[in-house]
Known about the structure:
mainly alpha; 0% strand; 49% helix
Amino acid sequence: xxxxxxxxxxxxxxxxxxxxxxxxxxxxxxxxKTAHPWVSGHEGNYAMCEIVNAIRYQGRTGVQWVxxxxxx
Length: 72
């Protein structure tokens, strides 16, 4: 699950996915990445749940990508 990541260094934000929400989203993301590994460009350096959290943060706040918090 998203919160079980031992490397996680940041505190949760208000809009982060809960474990229950991640459990609903994760199978679709994993299936898409498995079927099309060359499309995502994700090299596995970051947890997918953190990437989804960053996308949700950007979508909710409207902040430009370059202004995302450094730990997100």
